[in-house]
Predict the 3D structure of the following.
Amino acid sequence: MTARALIVEDEPLVAELLEDMLIEAGYGVAASVGALDKALALVETLTCDFAILDVNLRGCSTEPVAAVLRGRGVPFLFVSGYGNAQLSQQFLNAPLLAKPFRDEQLIRAVRSMLVEG
Amino acid sequence: MLSLDEVIITADLARRPSRPPDYEGENRALLGLMDCMAGRLAADEVLQKLVEAAMSLCKAQSAGMSLLERDPDGREIFRWRAAAGKWSSFRGEWMPRVSPCGTVIDRDTTMLMAYPERHYSYNDGVGMPISEALLTPFHAQGDPIGTVWVLSHDGQRRFDNEDRRLLSSLARVAAGAYQLLMQERLATDLALTERLQEISTELLGENQSGALYPKIVDAAALIMRSDFASIQVFHPERGETGALRLLAHRGFSPEAEHHWEWVGADSVTSCGGCLRLRSRVIVPDVERDELIAGSGEMPIYRRAGIRAMQTTPLIARDGKMLGVLSTHWRQPHQPGERDLRLLDVLARQAADLIERSLSVEHSRMLLDEINHRAKNMLAVVQAMVRQTARRTDPDSFVRLITDRLAGLAASQDLLVRNDWHGVELADLLRSQLAHLGELLDSRVGLSGPSLRLTPGAAQTLGMALHELGTNAVKYGALSNQDGRIEIAWSLDEAAQSRFVLAWREKNGPPVAAPTRRGFGCSVMVRSVEHALDAEVDLAFAETGLSWTMVAPVAAVAERSRRRFETPWPVVVS
């Protein structure tokens, strides 16, 4: 069965890029949102197999979304142009992909998180 | 109000019987004073001993020594360098030039006055009648520069010629003590100049500004001869009116340090007052300060051992408040004008230091931020290149991608020019449609209220408007001779805070919906919906393309401007 992603990314073109890269690699997209409140509303109930989170949504941290995902046992991957400088202690060890990234980097990161998760 | 001559009764001295001279008592007192001076007692202490001797020798109820000085406005005043007896608590305070002391200096002779408050108006704050005042001038380089005086308040004690003789003798000692005071000042001045020079040199070479704050605090205590000192930095972003944060101090108890770590403008303290007034605040005696004495701060001051204080603002060269420099004393204290002027020199240096470290910090944060934004922008460019490549034939790819990058660059330019604090929608429209040239003025109508977009909204809308413009030139209303575009926006703050932006084309060639939805369409519709929580309607009516977006105002409009929050190190000496 196709593993489906929740994408939380405020930059629409990058969100679209993530969707395309995942779909081309054979994954599905359960939802793609750009605002923190929408992400928080979705994340409790959405059926998804993994998530890709932009660390910084126009100044708001997506860590609350990550915390819910962690509680639900859903693996997630941070993407950021900020390195891990903006992550708090509890997420410093979470997988993180630096922007800009290539297809292979993204897909490799998704695969390894699905295997480990 | 009596005339001056009516309160002067010096002539009475000649008529009053004079008691026999007490040479023994006088000699004892003078020897004591000489010992004090030889024993390197501070000049102010010698002067205090002197007035105490005057009080006991003349059996007066109050005694004092006044020195002619200038106040911050350059007016002459008399500073009470020493005071004893009933008026001892006024030590350190001052009297106007027009006062008994002023008259004695003007006439340069010993004078006796009865109830001088019947002529002078200075007496309001003192509230204790002077039945008799005997005053005598003392000199430096031949000029009268101050007075020694004894008072009686009860109407019983009347001074005689013996008191005049004793006071004149003491005035000569006062002149000597004054010389000592001046020498002391010269020595302190020299030490201070050296200290200030040292600090300036360190300021020039020092990058770790934190290490210098304790030195500034020490220098302030040295200049003001205070028991405590502190430096606080202003954080304008804290609360409504900003707050002061303690950076370094000298002598505070742990309780005081903790209690005054943050001080707001509403705080009943000299630094809170300084923050409110943006000027120096002096509290000569906290116990007698109407505001402080009854406040919750009073127990803290008592436990900290602080009785008097002053706070001087640190002002940037452009007038902004940067912080404050305070000094505190264990005893009631009125800082002298000269000390305050020296402190101002130090305050100037401290302000420069704070300003410089603020700007270094600010530059470092900006560099970090620019690096992050560049990375994010590269991700956007990467996505743009990729999406364009997938949906375009190789021939037009380079032209299209160049166009789109130019559009992105135009939005960036606007943002940078506005310091990343958002962009006016009308400016964004003009910049994204600038390539239309004259058509922009003649065939495109812009109408709507002033609206400042967030940087994110400016970028997303910029790309959408760029695509709409390109499309209009290629296929739409600007591809023939008569077409027009009306761009209108509105803010519906009252209802649900909706922002509506509409792009309407008319009189263009007949419109047909495109057969495939390319990158342009994705940017005009999906991106805007995704990033701005918007609903976008794109309709290809035969009469012309129409594009309408509706979004919450909060998702597009910049709120009021925020300052960078700068983290400050706390240094405690």
Observations:
- The longest helix of chain B spans residues 337-391.
- The CA atoms of residues 38 and 115 of chain B lie 38 Å apart.
